[in-house]
Amino acid sequence: MIKVLMFNKLYHPSMGGVERLVYDLCEEIKGKVELKVLAANTKFKTEIEQRDKYQVTRAASLGCVMSSVHLGIGIPWWWTRLESDIIHFHFPSPVAELYCLALSPKEKPIVVTYHSDIIGHKLAMFFYRPFLINFIKRATRIVTTSPEMIENSPFLSKVKDKCRVIPYGIQMDKFKLTAEVKARSEAIKGKFKSPIILFVGRLVKYKGVDYLIEAMRDINATLLIIGEGPEEKRLKELIGEIGIEEGRIFFIGKVEDKELLAYYYASHVFVLPSISNNEAFGIVQLEAQACGRPVVSTALPTGVPFVNLNGETGIVVPPKSSEKLAEAINRLLEDGTLRLRLGEQAKKRVESQFTREIMAQKTLELYKELMSLKKEV
Predict the structure, then answer these.
(1) Which DSSP category does 355 fall into?
(2) CA–CA gap between residue 75 and residue 71 (Å, rounded)
(3) Where is each Glycosyl transferase family domain found (predicted)?
(4) Is the same domain home to 102 and 228?
(5) In this structure, are residues 40 and 10 in contact, taking their beta carbons and an 8 Å threshold?
(6) What is the rounded CA–CA span in Å between residue 279 and residue 199?
(7) What are 7's strand-pairing partners?
(8) Secondary element (H or E) of residue 55
(9) How far apart are CA 293 and CA 314, in angstroms?
(10) Which of 294, 212, 200, 295 is closest to 255 using CA atoms?
(11) Are 93 and 113 in contact (CB under 8 A)?
(12) What share of the chain is helix, strand, coil (3-state, %, to 5)?
C-alpha cells in the first residue's frame, strides 16, 4: 500500500475552504493508501490523533502572522520522522514550503495541490518569489483545480508539463432534499419575500458583495447574505447610502451546514460576484448547483467560470459590474423555464465531474503513476 504524507497548514476541525477540501480528500482515500496527515497546531503543543484508518499529527505552533502564515515550529521534526512514499502538499503555506525544500529527499515524489496564487503582499513576495520558484521546480506533479489556473498563473504557466487538473469534489449525499431540509426551506420561504437571491461566503472585499448590493436597486427580489467578515459594517452602511428600502437585503450571519442546505433550496438564484483572482474556484458554486440552483458568477481568469459554464449551468458576467449582475439575475428570475433548465444541467454536471469520489479516484491514479515512475528510475 502506498504511504502518503498529506500536509496542510491546518486540519479538521479547522474548516476553511482548503481545510474542508483536504479533509474530504483524506476521508475518501483513507484505507486505500497508508495515510498520515501533518498540520500545524493552533497552540504551542504537539497533538497526535488516531482517526479511522489514518493518523493526524498537529505540530506545535507559535501561531500565525499576516493572517494566514502559520509558524509551525514543530513541523520540521515530524517531517523527517513520518515515513512516506509520497508527500502531498497543499499550497500556499510559505513557511512549510521552506521546510519541504530543506528536508525532503530529492528522490521522494512531491505532489503539490496549488489552490491559488498568492495575491497582494508585494513586499513579502519580492523576497519569497525565489523560494516559490524553487519549490515549484522541486514538485514532481502539480495539481490544479481548473485548466484556467494553469494558463493564467504566472508560475504554473511555465511548468505546464508537470501540471494535472483534478477539480474539487463535494459529497453529493449531503445535498439531498430530505423531508427535514424541505421543511426548513419552506420555513425560510415563508419568512422572506420571494424570489430569493442567495450569497454565501466571507464578507471580504474580493467577494464583490458591494456590487451585488448595488445591483439590487434594479432587482425586485430579496437578497440573503450568509457569512461573516470585516466588510459587514461597510456593506450595511452601503445599503442605506444607495437608498435600498428596508426588508429587501438581510445579513443572516454564519449558519450550520444543515441550515445552509435549506437556504440553498429556498433560493431561486445563487450569486458569486467575486472581483479578483483571490477567488480561485468558488466551491460554493458546486454546493448551489448540487441543489439544482443556477449560478450568476464573474468572468475571472481562474476556475470560477470553469465551474459555472455560461449558458449551460448559469450566467457569467464581467467583474465589477452591478449593471450586468442585475441584468443576469433578472433574466433568470423572469424566465422560469431557463432558470430550471440551467439548474438541472448544473446538478447533472456536478454529479458527473465534481464529486468527492471522482476527486479521490483521480488523486489515487496520480499516486500510482508516480510510484510507477519511481520504479522505472
Answers:
(1) B
(2) 9
(3) 193-349
(4) no
(5) yes
(6) 14
(7) 38, 89
(8) strand 54-59
(9) 9
(10) 200
(11) no
(12) 45, 20, 35
- 62 and 136 co-located in one domain: yes
Cα–Cα distance measured from residue 48 to residue 168, given in angstroms and rounded to the nearest whole number: 27
Q: By residue range, what is the domain housing residue 115? A: 3-169+355-376
Q: Are residues 359 and 369 in the same domain?
A: yes
- CA neighbours within 13 Å on the CB side: how many for 260? 18
Count CA within 13 A, CB hemisphere, residue 315.
20
> Residue 74: what are its φ and ψ, rounded to 5°?
-85, -10
- Same domain membership, residue 213 and residue 165: no
Would you state the cell numbers that stand for residue 157, as one nine-digit string?
504557466
Report the CATH number at residue 221: 3.40.50.2000
**Residue 366 and residue 335 in one domain:** no
Quote the CA–CA distance of 36 and 29 in Å, as a whole number.
Answer: 11
Q: Tell me the sheet residues that pair with 316.
A: 297
Alpha-helix residue ranges (DSSP H) falling in the chain: 17-29, 75-79, 94-103, 122-138, 147-152, 179-191, 209-215, 232-241, 257-266, 283-290, 304-307, 322-334, 336-353, 356-376
Q: pTM of the predicted model, to two decimals? A: 0.90
Q: pLDDT tens digits for the chain (377 residues)?
A: 999 999 988 888 876 778 889 999 999 999 999 999 999 888 888 999 999 999 999 988 775 544 445 556 778 888 888 999 999 999 877 777 777 777 777 788 999 999 988 776 677 677 778 888 888 888 999 999 999 999 998 889 889 999 999 999 999 999 999 999 999 999 999 999 999 999 999 999 999 999 999 999 999 999 999 999 999 999 999 999 998 988 999 999 999 988 999 999 999 999 999 999 889 999 999 999 999 999 999 999 999 999 999 999 999 999 999 999 999 999 999 999 999 999 999 999 999 999 999 999 999 999 999 998 766 55
122 and 256 part of one domain: no
